[in-house]
Amino acid sequence: MPDGSPVSHTDQFSSLLPSGTGEYTAPTKYKDHPEKSEFGSVTTRFDGDIELIHPAPDIETLLQTTHLTAQLHHYNRDQQDDDWPFSNDGTVLYDLAILAVMDKALSVEDLSPASFDVPIRRFKIVFLKKARQPATHQGFYDYISDSDRVLTELGYSSASDLPGYETLRLASEERVPDELDDEEQNALDAGVIRAVYAVFRNGIKVPATVSDTYGFGAVAPPLSERAVPRTDKQTALRNWVQFLFNETISPLSFHRSQPRTDFQQYMGLFAASALYDCGVQTVANVSDYNYERDIIPKGSGIGKYIRDDDLPLNDAQAVLANTEKQAITEQFDAVHRETFKLADRLEFFAEPRSLAVDLYRIEWNGAENDVTINRPPKSENDNRSEWTYAVLGIIDTEARFTLGTRWLPDKSKYPRVVTELAPIAEEFLEVEALYADSEMISGALIDAFREIAGPDWAVRAPNRTVIKQLKGYTPQNHVGYVPAVSWKTSSKPAAVSYPYDSSNPSLIEFTAQELKRADPSDTEDQTNLSDFTEVEASAASLPSTLTEQFDEPDLVPGVGNASTHAAYLTDRSLPPHSGGGIHFPYYQRWALEESINQISNDFMPVINSSNEKLRVYGVNIAILFQNWHTMINRAPSPELGLRLTVTNQELLRAIEDVAFG
User: Fold this and answer.
1) Alpha helix (H) residue ranges in 249-383
2) DSSP per-residue letters across 624-657
3) Labelling 630: which of 39, 71, 496, 534 has CA 20 to 30 A away?
4) What pTM was estimated for this model as a whole?
């Protein structure tokens, strides 16, 4: 039963009630949430306290906080149970409290009983009846007739002084309603609701009929969000989106001197494009079924503004243009930083985090074939290109944020763009480890990894000769280790081979020199060799380490078979880091591919242009939405403190709604 963020409460009604206090802070309790079990301490990731002020600005807001009202009720009930002048059982104490706050509740709705041609005593009875919600008028009449203390508070000396059954029935069902116009009747009903909520949140039990009507029992602490009405969850998600708009997107600008469109409307345009799988120019024809067309930005403007020379792609273009205007990459780095500042406040980065670097590609089928990296052909005559991006992200389930991306116009830029992304990680994270696959692993790229993770990086080793030798000469149930292999780096990394199928493998250490001597065909940094699966192993050609440790090394299982091991490059030493400490965590990097899938297939606006600025803009918008999705599903919502389970599509719909609604 986890604790949540405390509720800081200011209540103008409390002073009217027994032992009431106007300002206090109450704890919150939540039930365990099975869907959030892998996300860490979700309930505590709230920016400060939940703040509640009563009277609420309107009834809709009051009803949306029913689950928080229940938390306040239990806190105040436990604090004051021994101090009540009557039993706290939903009868006399409740009635007296309702009558005590009646005038205050009605005044909030600009309604006064004195302004109606109804005796005040009878008006109080009508108000109390509405607040008790009895099953029958007869039952209510019998109830108050038997309660001397309530009769006194109503202004009657005894039950014999009470008007007759029919008189009170007519007062509640005809006389008072006839006195009020529709607006006043709504105000009376709202005043009753305010009174009920005021009494309940101050720890006083309500009648069972009242609890059922307002759902107090369903959301009693510890809170399970399953009992929260769907409309309140929708409000909580809208609160999230507006909060994230306010906190993160201010760095975005098209550098227009007098913009007529708020930038959050552009965010709605991008979200609708991704949601409905339509180009930004088509969004208005889809979204105007739900929203005023004048609110929806014209999609044609987006392309014009982003293509404009006043908006450089990156710092290099800004320098060439001799402009101080922020480039697209600089703007989005700032946006992502604002997102991570918020994540840091919510303590997503309180523990060291593991990162991964990867390449992802978006296939290009447009009429033009702009400069980008050709993907490997899928058939002999298939020469289509893909837009290739380098991405850096967190792979821990608790904090699966994408830290940033860069477009990769050619392979040689890979190390440089990773270096450009490094400062974001350095600013916010203590890096536990960094992982990458074997694609395009150059010495310069390894040096870029070192800037981010120090020695705690590991990459799947490309199948160069020394790696083939290490895997081929490592016996089954052994970890092979080479302390230093040449890789055109500032300092040589280590190579590790780990068995795919093993239990508690032993360590065997080679040197690069002995592996080379064992295979005279080796050429330093040789590439493009055929796959190494079986080697001709004989005692005469085996590394000296094997001949020293085994009597018949050529007969040792696994020797001569490179397919039994996976190989990695790393700066970690063995020990203290075992091979398993590299091999098994490495497979966490699939989580980055899951993030990439979200970015590419769920959150990406439809952009068919070959213009590199439009493509980079769209990818960064998708990353922003993916990061918002991560945060929303792993922290309580602003204002209401609800743990939401939100799909990709639901988030996009909420962004559209907040932007255009």
Assistant:
1) 263-276, 283-287, 299-307, 315-320, 328-345
2) HHHHHHHHHTTSPPTTT-------HHHHHHHHHH
3) 71
4) 0.90
